[in-house]
Automatic annotation (TrEMBL):
GO terms for molecular function: L-aspartate:2-oxoglutarate aminotransferase activity; pyridoxal phosphate binding. PANTHER family: ASPARTATE AMINOTRANSFERASE (PTHR11879), GLUTAMATE OXALOACETATE TRANSAMINASE 1, ISOFORM B (PTHR11879:SF55). Its cofactor is pyridoxal 5'-phosphate. Keywords: Aminotransferase, Pyridoxal phosphate, Transferase. The gene is aat2_3. Belongs to the class-I pyridoxal-phosphate-dependent aminotransferase family. The keyword Metal-binding does not apply. In eukaryotes there are cytoplasmic, mitochondrial and chloroplastic isozymes. This is Aspartate aminotransferase. Residues 29-404 form the Aminotransferase class I/classII large domain. Homodimer. One of its GO terms (biological process) is aspartate biosynthetic process. It catalyses: L-aspartate + 2-oxoglutarate = oxaloacetate + L-glutamate.
Amino acid sequence: AFSAEVVPQAPEDPLFGLMAAYKKDTDSKKVDLGIGAYRDDSAKPWVLPVVKQADDLLRKDPDLNHEYLPISGLADFTSASQKLILGKNSPAISDKRVVTLQTVSGTGAVHLGAAFLSKFYTPSTPDAKAIYVSSPTWANHNQIITNVHLPLKTYPYFSKQTKGLDFDGMYSTIEQAPSSSIILLHACAHNPTGVDPTQDQWKKLAHLMRQKRHFPFFDCAYQGFASGSLATDAWAINHFVEQGFELMIAQSYAKNFGLYGERAGCFHFVAAPSPSAQDEVARVGSQLAILQRSEISNPPAYGARIASLILNDEGLFAQWEEDLRTMSGRIKEMRKALKEHLVRLETPGSWEHITEQIGMFSFTGLDEKQVARLREESHVYMTKNGRISMAGLNTGNVEYFAKAVDGVVR
Ligand code: PMP
């Protein structure tokens, strides 16, 4: 029944394919700049000290069992997650205008939001039922959204000339979109470019989107990991909430807790302030619960327990903020070191963007041929679009990488 015409061989996931090729490479100088996972200065995965502490506490808990969590997840975790993303004193929380479900990390949260929109979103303009994503965006957005049959459109984002934000292109496309379109925004540390709007640009976008009655969907995968400050990295979301938007948020704990494989995350729906907001949130929550039940029944427990312990304990929370500064600080140092090496080598071109971009990734501006040469000649592994994971650089390989780049750019 499943002939090649019906089920053609799918291409390998580019990122996980890259990871496999890196593993196979036996050269001792090889450098992995592909996957977006934090590495310490010895290129090793890093268990955050605070996560280790929470894990030890959990394992000693005699009451720990393996029962199901509720459909919407661990209540202490989802309520702490609301406070983390919206702020402790958020009026949206005190007005009870937020409904939160624990999800299978950020991917699951994007999916739940997209599935909900596909099923229920009724735009005031009939042709507005499409979701706009940045070009480029995290590759998985495209397939998650297509899977739930939500029409996908794009807005310009990255300027090849400046290697910064194409704000005018982004703004005018959002301006021309039919009113009440859905706009997917990266809350901070845009993947794959590392380029974010400034606060002033966010304000302009919020103003425009209010006028156009667009619906914002924030994807937040790097809170605290990008700048080292949890509040700074959630600034854009909170500006939109303060402006009275109804919106949705996908929140991942993969990077900021280093809980990649534990799949801890949340989906939040925030209703606009209105007398019927609590009623709306209850109805939306009831439908989200049905979607969740039919797809995963109940979310995975262990990562959420770890995160919950940390989020709900002042001492552990403070330690976590230290760990976030360790990770974001090391990445910023690597940006600085890479730029300095390239400048010192007088590598042709401008390299300012390396330190202006933020978060896990940098769009280097290297083209596909240069990327292929880096892999063949220097055993450097990165995605074809010229994106590097800054976390793959360390004091032992950053100069080697800069020299390799210098070699292919000349
Ligand atoms: N959104 C974006 C923009 C991301 O970069 C990521 C992580 N690669 C995610 C969502 C979700 O990742 P996860 O499912 O591991 O939380």
